[in-house]
Specification:
Number of domains: 1
CATH topology: Purple Acid Phosphatase, chain A, domain 2
Helix content: 25-40%
CATH superfamily: Metallo-dependent phosphatases
CATH class: Alpha Beta
Number of strands: 14
Radius of gyration: 18 Å
Largest sheet: 8 strands, mixed
């Protein structure tokens, strides 16, 4: 059965068996803990589209399947809409306007569910690449696949999400610097969810691409913690940025890429998965898992 009270199990037997095997050998205390795995940006158009059509969509994530299938929840950023429109960016050249217009094959929603990526952030600068109609289709396809989402830019009721996992309520709030009045939106959502949840994560889409964390990121991260967030997980810069502990709360300014077709320098090919463990008394600990993006479109764990 699903670990989420409002989910339906629809993955293949093979996927379920792999998840059970990954949990084998755990102590009772470890099984009682909640393990949430966070990833960065996922982009399934352009070169990733053409490669996944050749090798199969699940192949893109197979190299991180052990980690994602063994988690109680996996959260990552869906860097664009899922629509029935044909791709505009596939085959485009870097710098072309259409190179930055993303739409993902709706079948990716089912793949995400089957691979245990069942909560996605959609508060980012690409989700409206195909306008409001594209966002409406995205909601439809994610809902049909039972993939939950938060960060909706056009519906206030869909900006945050609360998952019930092993009897605890875990809240997810988005900050998206590409929203109008983004800071106040996030502060409002934190204030609304804080009394309702045991643990509250703010998943951000912010900063400048390819550089370390900016002073604005740092100001906002500390503000969100001061207002009630338990941890901050960042995306958008396409590189792994700094980790910081502020008032005993952990901030990951950017996890970099999880699935993306950027290979032009080592920093964009190296991403991070972060495993957050929540104990019975709601304390948090974190484990970093380094990943690498291969030029064939696959993402793999970096072996020690």
């Amino acid at each position: 059965m699903s670990r989420f009270s409002d989910y339906e199990t629809k993955g293949s037997d093979r996927v379920i068996d792999m998840a059970e095997q990954a949990r084998a050998g755990k102590t009772a205390e470890e099984i009682g803990n909640i393990r949430i795995l966070f990833g960065g940006d996922m982009m399934f158009d352009r070169y990733i589209r053409t490669q996944s059509e050749k090798m199969g969509k699940r192949e893109v994530l197979l190299g991180v399947s052990k980690e994602i299938l063994s988690a109680d929840a996996v959260v990552a950023n869906l860097e664009g809409p899922m629509t029935s429109n044909p791709s505009k960016s596939a085959g485009s050249s870097v710098g072309e306007a259409r190179n930055f217009l993303f739409t993902f094959d709706p079948e990716w929603a089912n793949v995400l569910f089957d691979m245990n990526i069942r909560i996605v952030n959609i508060g980012n600068n690409h989700i409206l690449n195909f306008g409001e109609a594209g966002l409406i289709e995205t909601r439809k396809f994610l809902r049909a696949a039972k993939v939950k989402f938060f960060g909706d830019p056009l519906d206030e009721s869909l900006r945050a999400y609360v998952a019930e996992i092993k009897g605890k309520k875990i809240g997810f709030v988005n900050y998206n610097q590409f929203y109008l009045d983004a800071e106040n939106r996030t502060l409002s959502d934190i204030a609304r969810l804080r009394p309702l949840v045991d643990v509250l994560f703010v998943y951000t889409h912010w900063g400048a691409e390819y550089v370390p964390a900016t002073s604005e990121e740092k100001r906002l991260a500390r503000l969100f913690i001061d207002r009630g967030a338990d941890a901050i997980i960042g995306s958008h810069p396409h590189v792994v940025q700094e980790r910081e502990v502020y008032h005993e709360k952990t901030i990951y300014y950017s996890l970099g890429n999880l699935v993306f077709d950027q290979y032009f320098r080592p920093e964009v090919r190296q991403g991070l998965l972060v495993e957050a463990t929540i104990t019975s008394n709601n304390t948090l600990s974190f484990r970093d898992i380094s990943i690498t993006l291969s030029s064939d479109g696959r993402t793999k764990v970096v072996k020690d």
